[in-house]
């Protein structure tokens, strides 16, 4: 008897992953691919949308051919701030522009001047001004810089919904993608912002469909329920929302370390926006206040420098265990002189300005790097905790497996319960959980999230 499963495609910037989950949310099959990039018309690197579409079709065909499994549903999670523009026949009209593509300064100024200023827009749309990372601005750019192309666009889809449409031939929008720092959504009025309507961009955006909905399809002779896909950060939060009812903050760590507080209902302030706070949208359409740090990238860059300086392998930090005596020794290090800050945004820790010759060993330098990162993390996470009743902090992703990071975080938040939490492929699992009733006859498992509690055993300061 074939095993009932759900198929999930989890599409990141670097890795494209395919999974089969059984009804207990255990992964029974998986494979990964890395696809070559291409460039857009300006020579900027970007995802090869044709290559990606072919991988999606090939991956689904491969999964459906596995006779040991009964694939009852398919869903998708992808990175955000990326849009696919289609003509009336469903053909892709543009490259999949990279969200790091520089945005024309004059056009950005035109936009904010027309619609009441940057602060007014960012406050309503719960996102800092981030150029191309504000996906709505990508469509605005096409309208004013490529008007003939714009007129030929029938639908503008966020990437998860485009991937879904490859199987369903149906076009929808989803709230987790629209609410992901796009500047399209007015969080105060819970609808598209007025600028979207005035520019008539809403006519290019397909109708909204709930993330718990599916579309009945027959693929290669297999009847299957297909979800419309969702933004990866919102998907990764779902296992925690379904497992815990008491308030918590989730620090999702990777290249970005994002502190997510689903229990903070206060509107974003101008000061919070200046410090890179924003709101994501969870799959029921409720805002999730978040703050971001680029700490995973900083960790990668600084550990490369430490490896060269001390003559050790790049991944030598994996052998380092937390040592409170080394933390105490950091008090004797010379003070750091920082350059004048240009704004209030939390950019990187003070470690970038430290003299590596002042450290006695790699271990001391690495403890200092992590202490500096945690000092910044403490500031960032406090922005979203504020006066909420949160008493628990969960950490998932790469840093959750780092004992130095976890012990220092517990020291930084002595009145909180701090846990290293783990969900097997949380983003993919979240996309599967969103459509649970459409494929799974079993109740949700009680052990979706595994946790390790970190406590402060002695009074320490960082």
From TrEMBL:
InterPro entries: ATPase_NBD (IPR043129), FGGY_C_2 (IPR049382), FGGY_Carb_Kinase (IPR050406), FGGY_N (IPR018484). Keywords: Kinase, Transferase. Residues 6-228 form the Carbohydrate kinase FGGY N-terminal domain. CDD domains: ASKHA_NBD_FGGY_NaCK-like (cd07772). The keyword Kinase applies. GO terms for biological process: carbohydrate metabolic process. The keyword Kinase applies. Residues 246-438 form the Carbohydrate kinase FGGY C-terminal domain. One of its GO terms (molecular function) is kinase activity. It comes from the Bacteria. Coiled coil: none annotated. Belongs to the FGGY kinase family. This is Carbohydrate kinase. It comes from Deminuibacter soli.
